[in-house]
# Entry
Amino acid sequence: MLEKKTIDIDFSQVEAERMRVNMGPQHPSTHGVLRLEVELDGEIVTDVVPHIGYLHRCFEKTCENMTYPQVIPYIDRMDYISSMNNEWPYVMGMEKLMGIEVPERIEYIRVIMAELNRIANHQIAVATFGLDAGAFTPFLYLFRDREMILNLFEWASGGRLLYNYFWIGGLQRDVPPNFKETCLEIVKTVRKTNAEVMELLIGNKIFIERTANVGILPADVAINFGVTGPVLRGSGVPYDLRKVEPYSIYDRFDFDVIVGKGEMGTVGDCWDRNIVRMREMEESCKIIEQAVAQMPDEPKDVRLTVPKRVRPPKGEFYAKAENPKGELGFYIVSDGSAKPYRVRARATSFVNLSVLPVISKGYMIADLIMILGSLDIVLGEIDR
Amino acid sequence: MENNFLYNLFGNNVWFYLITIAIPLVFVLIYALIAILGELKIASWIQDRLGPMRTGWKGVLQPIAEVVKLIQKEDIIPANANKALFNLAPYIMFTGAFAAYAAIPFSSQFVPAHLNIGLFYIFAVGAFAIIGIVMGGWASNNKYSLLGAMRAVSQMVSYEIPIAFALLSIAALAGTLDLQDIIKQQEGGIWNWFIFGGNGSLIKILFIPFTISLFLVHFTSSLAETNRIPFDIPEGESEIVAGYHTEYSGMKFAMFFFAEYANMFTVSALVTICFFGGWQSPFGDFLNSPIMQSVWFVSKAMFFVFVQIWLRWTLPRLRVDQLMFVSWKVLTPVAFVCFIALSYWGLIK
# Structure
């Protein structure tokens, strides 16, 4: 008779060889030239170390050798997906520093342009997030609509990606004729496509399974890391500079701050961060509609208050604005000459990326990609 | 043999065998080109764009251009790869995909090899692909390839179980493993197809829910067998670059590509045979001549190829553990219940 054998294995004690994988800088879904050093236990991520610097262009040092208006094109190249928004805090800070009052019409144009760019940015964010999940079609639907916004920007500024449109004290040139009608048309199209994307992608069972309860970022961790923008609001913190410290003319508009509520899983998961972006597009549409209705037609000259020589008085200033990706700030030190003594940028994506190692441990490699996608980073801004 | 028009035409000589081999090969080549073009055009139609437009009229020559491009490409073998395995893998993959065509009955008058265990043969040969994937993934000496190969094995082995149950149910229902026999039992119009319980008295209405869910189980598992979205985890472009064929280029990559498309038709053909009457006309004897039968068969199978393409451009991708969940906790139990029900129906029929 055979002896009955029992084998006791405590699988928690079994040590498997860990694998270190370098994801990027050439990888389909690291959203640029980011390198992630990932330690894997089978498919489970045990450690992530982001390596940055592949796109470093010495932005801050270069600025010290440029006159103040020459800095603006370099700012465009930081977060190249939302250049209009990037220019705004810098221009706003310079105007405060020099004491320039900008005509109301220009403020309205800036608001409309910034909100349109916010929509364009969120479209890319949602589209590439879907692409990370393997859904290719919503990507193209959203890009098709983004094209309308880019066409308008091209019409206004001459550039499709890098605009140099906001100038210190004014704008590069006036908006094209039919500007208001085009804006309303864009708003209409964005709403239509977003409804479609909500059905096709966001409400898809597979998509929900992939994103809900994945990469949970608790509110306290988010605040400790200084995370801002949709990533912070996805964790349920209603922090939006447009509401908290209204700059420009944002106090005139009626819009809501969208926060994640954990509808499909836990508050602060990937699905929440994504839905915040989807709903913010609708809020931007609301702002654009109101701004278009309120916008005055005079004065036509948008360079009326543009100073001939930009030579701010000695001093320093920190200006910030709510970018699509979060709070973007510029700390400008002026020594009274035509060139800045120091320009320091508080880059949103850089701060937002810092939570990645914290929130992605213990998930699978496919989840890591989803978490990275939900943070919506742009390497141009991280490396500067 | 007596039901083979080539046999009747040539008799038992070398020409008969050569032409019997040539027909599926030519069919696969032409089909693959059409399917690639279909993929491009259907994708662009779904995505509201034009797709390829410059090669030939409306871009119809695009697949040929792609094949020419792939032939011209440099054949790269990674320095530390296991050369023999690396070179062999794509051909094994394609051999497995092509071997299944030997038993596919295109018409009542033509099946390349009339096997009495055809159902089992196609199922068994389909498992060949796993060997190719593992060889390719391991020999590439690339971590992404290895991960892809690991995923592929676990996926394909898991999904063979629901497929096996589905085919077993069909075998129980038909009482045979012979594909021609299975199809012949479904004659007499659309109502007698196995998706509607086969021919029999009206009591079969009770079993229609089981056949339909069995079809869904089988088709879903077939998607996993062909590694397409939502089950393209072994390739998972956004995660592991291209999975097991990350390191392949040129014609060897084309072989993997080709095998995927060949597999798509095989699984569609199997679904057609098992549930949708194979080469039977949907109108009973009307339009049921041997030539029309092959037209029916190919168009039914192509419809399921279309469904696969449609799904690919609509759905996101599942995660590895979710994939296993679907296979073991959803599809396998459902398939098992259907198997019991249909065996009973096969018994009392």
